[in-house]
Amino acid sequence: MSGTNTPSTAGAGFGPVPPHGALRSAPPWAWPLLLVVGLGAGLFVPLLGISLVALLAADLAVAVVAQRRSARESAH
Prior knowledge:
This protein is mainly α.
């Protein structure tokens, strides 16, 4: 590969890149479906990030408490 971002290699992991204007050729019944899927992804992807941050914060809190307990027990 030459490293250039050509249409044949840009989306190599997910198949070829659609040509410009491909959405215009979509059937009219697909437009609301695409809108709903896009809005759903826009709403739920950030929620996944928020839950991941909450999980990491809880894990960090448990680790800090465990470290303090072990330090306290070794001091006595």
